[in-house]
Design goal:
The protein has 1 helix and 24 strands. With 296 residues, it is mainly β. The chain starts with a helix and ends with a strand.
Length: 296
């Protein structure tokens, strides 16, 4: 089933939130600015003690990790209220869980971190998000999207509109030319060279790690998750959840979130989606129904 043009426009609204969150210097431009997002981080206050503007999700051993504009949060299995991880309140974007205790991300420093450049490049935590250090491209890249498969990492750098590919966990990179601005990536769980990109021009696929691209569906766009072979999921800007069994060429609607997504991942047999109000929903039936995983 193809996405109507009206829904594609909604998906591009999501794109605007992801790609337009920050300018090249790490600050939002006047045209791109999200209301109150960066204003609230300019000083310590009540906003520092709540989740706002979710940029990414990750799951490990039943714990849900939530990367936000004001640091990393976690809700353990059975908990619906998240708590802050560590003391850092930096803006974490492009968040991805690689293994137990090892996370990667990107983003921008908190105003109190005057010694750091506006764009953090690729950062890594090896203690479950309590502390972070730069791995590569410090000051040179702002990864709004990061997806990993083993040691292979794909990242879309919003500062230069480039797709970066690493085969050593993000220490060194090769540059690729994406078909358009990317706001969602999914890696084939059986072939890390095969990737689907959700872009400002619709869906595109690559079988050679981003060296070349072919249109998959230029009338469909959204956030992606690919947990297993034959199960590629997409949630569009209206919150409709779609499933493809052929790598993104044909789709069918399976459910709805009831709102615009801010982040979307799969972990095991579960799907997780963050909404604009700071809540996270979970589905254990392939996107057909959703329940609250965490509240803001």
């Amino acid at each position: 089933m193809r996405l109507p043009r009206s829904h594609l426009a909604g998906a591009f609204a999501t794109c605007a939130l992801v790609l337009g969150a920050c300018g090249d210097d790490g600050r939002p431009t006047a045209a791109q600015r999200e209301p109150t997002a960066h204003d609230a981080s300019s000083a310590n206050g009540p906003d520092d003690d709540r989740i706002r503007h979710i940029h990414g999700l990750g799951v490990r051993a039943g714990a849900l990790f939530i990367a936000t504009h004001g640091g990393l949060w976690v809700a353990r299995d059975g908990q619906t209220q998240a708590r802050r991880v560590g003391e850092s309140q930096q803006d974490i974007m492009g968040f991805s869980v690689l293994s137990k205790g090892r996370f990667i991300g990107s983003g921008h420093p908190h105003p109190s971190q005057q010694d750091l450049p506006p764009n953090l490049g690729l950062i890594e935590s090896r203690d479950g998000g309590n502390s972070w250090r730069n791995i590569s491209l410090n000051g040179e890249a702002d990864f709004h999207v990061l997806e990993s498969s083993g040691s292979r990492v794909y990242g879309f750098d919003g500062t230069q509109g480039r797709l970066m590919v690493s085969s050593d966990g993000g220490r060194s990179w090769q540059q690729r030319m994406p078909p358009a601005g990317v706001f969602g990536l999914a890696v084939d769980p059986t072939d890390r060279d095969r990737v689907v990109a959700s872009t400002q021009r619709g869906l595109f696929s690559s079988t050679n790690a981003g060296k070349g691209w072919r249109p998959a569906d230029e009338r469909l766009a959204g956030l992606l998750a690919w947990p297993r072979r034959g199960q590629l999921y997409l949630v569009d800007g209206q919150g409709q959840v779609r499933l493809s069994s052929d790598g993104g060429r044909r789709w069918r609607v399976v459910g709805s979130l009831g709102g615009q997504p801010a982040a979307f991942i799969a972990s095991g047999t579960d799907l997780y989606a963050a909404l604009g109000d700071g809540s996270v929903q979970r589905s254990n039936d392939g996107g057909r129904s959703w329940t609250v995983r965490t509240r803001p």
